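The aim of this short unit is practical: by the end, you should be able to scan a pair of folded records and say something sensible about each. We start with the first protein, listed as its amino acid sequence and then its structure tokens.
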Amino acid sequence: MPGTVLLIAASPAGRGCLVDAASVLPVLAAVAPSVLSGTDTANVVELADPLQPQAVLTRLRAAATAPGPLTVFLTGQLQLDRRQRRPHLALARTTPATVRYTGFPWHWIREELRLRAPGSTTLLVDLHTDAETWQQLAAQPLTGGPGVALYGRVAPPPPRRALAVPTYMKSLATILRSGHRPPLADLHQQALTRSYAEDPDSARRDLVLAAEPRYPAGIPMPGPATAHGYAAAPAAATPLQPAAPVPYLAAVPMPASPPVAVPVPEPAPVDPHAEITAAVQNGRHAEAAALAERWERTALRTYGPGADEVVHWMEVRADLAMFAGDAELSCRIWLAVADARLTAGQPPDAPGVEAAVDRAHHQWGRIGDATRARELGSALADLRGRVPGRRQGALDDIRRNLSRLQTH
């Protein structure tokens, strides 16, 4: 199956730029697509100094829904928005005062990659920060999500009036240009070694990222996500069976040894996310929805209403309805997700709450039946009053469209 590669190099224009992110693209572009992806063939999409967050989101979403392995090479700088203090990838028009509206939120990356099968996604990053962002990330490291392999480094701000060089990503690309793609952990270590040779000081100051996908538990198979990713499974009793007795040595008589018990390996668990993804890719939308609904009921019985595991499967069902073209159902579920998160005590500006309302709003705009759109529009307007989100004028947009629907 062909892979997908997304090359993103982003940094602000002008005095706010900390790193020459775009300089890495020619080196990466010289690597064969199959080597970048680690597959026989691959589709490569390049984003150089993007201007709009929605442009990045569109490309990332398309890559995330493509079948086969996904590898994202991300170079740029991170900044915090002043209101919520969340890390954003700074884009060409980003300034410290406009990060919230012109940057690309890091949690959007997690949101778009969360439905991919664990182990199918690799995120390789070379990121620079200002002093404020650096301090926060030192205490709260970046994550790519429970099913994503995340490797790379985060660097502090360069000296005053200096422009940093993405030496880690350039080293990565130089290694891959040989035509050989080592295992991911080895590739990461080789890139670090090479980049530290060019910039020895970075070995003492950089935050190194090296996270493999984690797998969940609680219910029988890997699958339900928690607020902090996939939880570790409790140890299960493993059946034992005796091995053959140790034979006597011919030269020296030995007393008989008791049988030695060795564990019998259990079959690997099936990942429900991979099964659901396969069903969607083959057009079996009803089957995928039924699987997700079954896992939601299991999580509900296990953890109770409002638990993170339950909300996770609600979100999966909302996305599946979108993939199936059922905008009304997707909107209804996203509204329920937002309500569940708010009822659980999450604040209106929490990433999960805002994302749920934004997605409900997006799906509402795709409903073709005016009667049902009016019905859901009223509920959406009420929710938008509590969760304004990042989109300026979102509530006015709903009211304007509701007025148009009433007229028609």
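Turning to the second protein, read its sequence before its tokens, just as you did above.
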Amino acid sequence: MKRLRTIALLLSACGLLGGCNAVVLSPSGYVALQQRDLLVEATILMLLIIVPVMVTTVVFAWRYRQSNSAAVYEPDWNHSTYLELMIWSLPLLIIICLGAITWASTHLLDPYRPLSQISADQPVPEDTRPLRVDVVALDWKWLFIYPDYGIATVNDLAAPINQPIEFRITSSSVMNSFYIPALAGQIYAMPAMQTQLRAVINRPGVYEGFSANYSGAGFSGMHFTFRGVSDDDFKSWVAEAKAQGTGLDRAAYLTLERPSEDEPVHRYSSVDPTLFKAIVELCVEPSKMCMSEMSAIDAKGGLGITGSANLMPFEYDKYARRGAVFGVEPSYVASLCTPDEPTGSKPDAPFSAVPDPAPARLVGAGLRLPSFTPLPPTSGPSALRIAFRRSGS
């Protein structure tokens, strides 16, 4: 009966494992296929050491057991040049091989590197234009923007087979990980940053995509569908999105950005062309300063201590959703005041740096004057004149 139970348990385990989809070992994209080959090669190289060690462990235990009187007993043995060569040389050779393979694959499979091959025997034609897709990880859903077609989708992604895909990836709030196992490896999506991924799908089908990095309560439902389709089916898919979807402007995005779980698939027939750049630079909200604008100000000397609190967090994230108030209301710089415009420039006016050199200075309307401690006198009237000029500037 024990043997029958063991056999039944093994058969049940095999049946359960037979329902698993080992997509990592059977991908449908050329990049994922190369990554699979790298994984297999590394595993085989490591097994060249692991298997002999496991076998010799059993052999040694059996050969030198206490009841084996035929085994040679050498209590004073302490060195063998032959064993030392085996123990150190073979693992060293395997490490060298692993290092060479990893170094080459790291450069060949760089996600920022344009594809040179569609498949192992098919190079990318010179006139091929990659499909551009902007990916935004939201709480807790995925937004896909097709800038060349002017459409966007939520939790639904499609691409023609054998056409290179160029992903630009970012996040709206917390770090996530964009992962389609059948297509390529995972790439992190981080707020205020843009990562990239180049890939291609070689076989038609419907594949699973998801976030591989925990990001909060709705993480378990942060899945999407990736479709590998023919060129004609992709054109039909784009036409359907243009016909049935609604527009995605900044106001609609701010509504979509709010946290929601198990978001259904929906599409947008038009997209603000500046939306993705604004998402990356954290300035989708009206009149909020973008990171590039702040960098331009910092390059000209910055705003000093006044700009240290130049922050505008998500209002729903800090107040409504968490039900708590952290400090004062958020504030941020909306305009700059100069001697010519003491009340500040218009919010939609472009930033223009003060000419250098120039007697004019940035004036903070309503701000306290900074404290100044004059330099101690050293010798002669020249030092006092220098200190006075510095305080005046």
